[in-house]
Design a protein that fits this description.
By secondary structure, this protein is α+β, with helices and mostly antiparallel strands. It has two domains: 77 residues, Beta-grasp domain (Ubiquitin-like (UB roll), Roll); 83 residues, DNA polymerase, domain 1. The chain contains eight helices and five strands; from the N terminus they run E-E-H-E-E-E-H-H-H-H-H-H-H. Helix 2 crosses helix 5, helix 2 packs across helix 6 and helix 2 packs across helix 7. Bound molecules: FE2/S2 (inorganic) cluster (2 copies).
Length: 194
């Protein structure tokens, strides 16, 4: 009989308690045990960043972390980046700048960018490039991704767009519901394998 451990952690702001296999990675726990398939499986050796999550505020490759290492900790996945059911400023910027192509790398890019902006709210372009250096994009959408992060860091432009979308301004229409899903859920929903 396979031994199980119990993982107790705060996942996307919610206390969770779940039995896990001792050898399962945090990525496996998130995807298979908790159904949080936003974090992507790709290289599984820490090279692509598709599986990036925040563990106790630090971005980590969840394919390289044992699930039980998150015990007692706090994990934020791409699903946890929304605020009150709305896309975050950063997610809005990714939409605005067309940063998602196939979308597979985007959850990891968003989480890595979130970590970068948390530690450095106004990064320079080289700092964004360095901050996202561990996240590969096979569609080579780096320029749009960097532009989106810089725009989110500037804040006003994207905040203004968000305000407009919510009816507090009048400069751009709100992204369609299906388009909003492109950032956080398209890799699961329509394009990428789960
Ligand atoms: S899947 Fe974890 S770094 Fe590539
Ligand atoms: S958008 Fe396709 S891998 Fe980055």
């Amino acid at each position: 009989m396979t031994e199980t451990l119990r993982l107790e952690a705060t996942i996307n702001g919610r206390p969770r308690s779940v039995p896990i296999a001792p050898h399962h990675t945090l990525l496996e726990v998130l995807r298979d045990d908790l159904g949080l398939t936003g974090s992507k499986e790709c290289c599984l050796v820490g090279e692509c960043g598709a599986c990036t999550v925040l563990l106790n505020g630090r971005s980590v490759d969840s394919c390289l972390v044992l699930g039980i290492e998150a015990d007692g900790g706090e994990v934020i996945t791409v699903e946890g980046l929304t605020r009150d059911g709305r896309l975050s400023r950063l997610q809005e910027a990714f939409l605005e700048y067309g940063a998602a192509q196939c979308g597979y790398c985007i959850p990891g890019q968003l989480v890595a960018a979130q970590a970068l902006l948390a530690s450095n709210p106004h990064p320079t372009r080289p700092e964004v490039e360095e901050g996202l250096a561990g996240n590969l994009c096979r569609c080579a959408g780096y320029e749009q991704i960097i532009e989106a992060v810089l725009a989110a860091a500037e804040g006003d432009a994207v905040e203004g767009e968000v305000a407009a979308a919510s009816g507090r301004g009048a400069t751009r229409s709100e992204p369609e519901a299906g388009k909003q899903l492109d950032v956080a859920a398209t890799p699961d929903a329509t394009v990428a394998p789960q």
